[in-house]
Every structure is written in structure tokens, then in C-alpha cells.
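Our consortium's second objective concerns turning raw sequence data into structural hypotheses that experimental partners can test. To show how far this objective has progressed, the report includes one record in full. It was chosen at random from the queue rather than selected for favorable results. The single chain below, 398 residues long, was entered without modification.
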Amino acid sequence: MNESIRFGYIRTFVPLKKSLEVRQDDWTLKLIDLWELPLEINVTPQLTSEAMEMPVVLFAEPQVKGAYRFTNLVSALYQLKIQYKSFLVEKEIRIPSNDVTLVFPAMFPITFQVLNSRGMKIGGATIQLNRGDKTIDLKSNVSGTILSVPPGSYIVSILSQGQIISQRSLNVLSERSVDLFTTQEPEFPLLVLVVVGIIVMIGLAMSIMKKDPFYFLVILVLGLSVAGIVSPWWTLQGSSSDVQTSSVLYLIPLDLVTTTKTSQFIGGELAFFPDLFVDAMTILPILAAVSSILIFISLFFKRVDTKKWYFLSLICALFILMCSLILFSIAMSAFTKVGVGNFSGQGIIDVSVQVEDIGTSVFCEWGPGIGFWLYSLSVLILLSTLVYVVIDNKKRNR
């Protein structure tokens, strides 16, 4: 019996395993401005690399102010790009890399115009800008003061003789012009009042010397009308536990200045006037000047004993003064109708406390100012003077 042996082959498949480690790193970018303070504008740092098979833009995750973190970056050469408006920063970064601090060179020119309580430009005050632990002082010019600063939030203070006369916050995101209203009073109204006082005293002396009250009364009318023109003609006043506000209308120069004060804010703004209102208010100083000339002429006619003409000049002056009051009342009533509602009154008004238009409600009272009342008093005194002249002439003709 033949036996046969068969041999076979067993095939076994062993899988081939291969591992590849790819290093991934995190990288933090810190941005500062030219004041060496953390950048306060929102930018978007971007990374790209030519080593990528398909171009992809990598974005950072914002961290604390001015810091950005890129995560899971593979080792390669990257191009960093940061842009804000016309400012651009580009830099090559090789990952892995230590964290980097870059200066972003954005700077914007700011034009500061310092104004007094009447909205008139002033110079010589100290403009102080504060941000973080940095402070810059510069002197104001009447023509405007220009300073370039990095974007961010600033506290702007105006100082005169060491006293803060204006203070506000300022957000700088681009080039801008800023009006800084202060509590500083102009000198010319005080000078006018001093001159008026001297003239009235001269009129009093003339009346005593000539034993005729006419000269004092007429010059008093002149003085009151001139003092009235340089004084406020309409005012609004209001206050609460945190806010004080006032709006004052001046004829010279023609401005309605609103001033607001808090514990951390002193500022103001100018109202916008319709053209018709501007035309009406511009006429008032002209009418005051014409009435003053007529009053001076009446003194001349009185001196040369021309009774008819000095009486007529006083009547014309009285008519012009009364027309001025009527014109102002009509124009101001129309203007306040769209604002506070009427020429005089009281009520709750929303007041803007900050440049960000944060408002608060304040109880306010408004109505004619001291200039209006001085002008009205001059009308009453002139009317009384005319009555005195008529009675005196009748006595002398008897």
C-alpha cells in the first residue's frame, strides 16, 4: 500500500502600521500702540502660509485687551497681516515661536477748539489728555490745537490757573474735530457793565448840576439797554442730585449754549438756529444801537433847547425798544415751541450727560433772562421820562 504525503502552504497577511506625529503649537500676539498701551481698537490678526496645500486664512481668538491667541498651528512659516483703515502691519512668523509683542502704528489727528461759556474761541488754556497711565499737556490756540493720538478712550480736561473748567471723555476711532466748552466767562460783558456804570454816574452828576432829572433818566435808559444787549436774554436752569444743566441765549455773539455738569463731566454744546430766527435775533443789536443814537441826539436837542426834536427822538427810541421786545418774544416763542414747548415754564427735560448720548431726566425752569428784563426796564424808564417831560412842559407853559 502506497502512502503519499501532501505538503501545503499557509499564507498569513500581517497589516503594516505607520504613525506620523504632527506638532501643533499655540501662539499669542500682543498689540500695543505708540503710547506703549494695549491697543483699544478691534482688529483681526490673520495668518496664512504658502506651505498649505489649500490656502486658508487662520484667525486668532481675542484674549485680554490687546492680546490674540492662535491655536493648533503646525510648524511652518506664516505671514501675519493686521489692518485697520489705512494702517497695515505685515510680518513673517515661524512657528514654533515665542509670543510676540508688536506696535500697531495707528495715529489720528484730533483738532481741539476750546470755547468759553458763550461759545467764543479762547486760547492759553491747558488741554490735558489722560489714558491709562499716560498724560499729555498742551496749550490751546484760538485757531485750534491739533494733536495726533493712538485710537482709544481718553479723558480730556481743560485747566485754567490750576482749576478744571471742562472735562469729558473722548473716543478716538478716526480723525475728528472736538469743541471743548468751558465754564470760563468772557471779559467784555464785565467791561461793558463798568463803562455803563461810569456813564450812568456821569448822567447823575449832570442832573444834580443842572437840577434836572432828565439827564440821569435818559442816560440810565441808555445804560440799561446796552447792559441788556450783552446779558443773557433767555435761560433754562435745572438740577438733580447728579446733574446740573443750563441753557443760555446770548445776542452778542448769537449763541444758545447748553452747559452740563456732573461729578466727572463738564461740557456743553451749541444749538442750531433756523435762518429766520438768526435774522430776527441779528436785528436786535442793530435796533439797540439805533435807539442809543436817538437817545444821544435827544441830549443834544435838550441842550440847545429844541423841545420838539428831543421829544420826538425819545418817542422814536421808545418805539424801537418796544419793537425789539416784541420781535424777540415772537421769535423766541416760535423757537421754543419745538423744544421745551413754550417761551417760559417748567417741567422734566431729558438732558444729555455725555458724548455717548447717555441721558437723564432733570426738572428745569426756563424763561426770559436778565438781558430781557434790563431791556424791559429801560422801556419803562423811558416811558416814565416822556411822561415827566410832558408834565414839566405843561408846568412851564402856565
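The partners drew two points from this record. The two ends are 187 Å apart (CA to CA). The longest strand covers residues 163-172. Both points have been shared with the crystallography group to help prioritize constructs.
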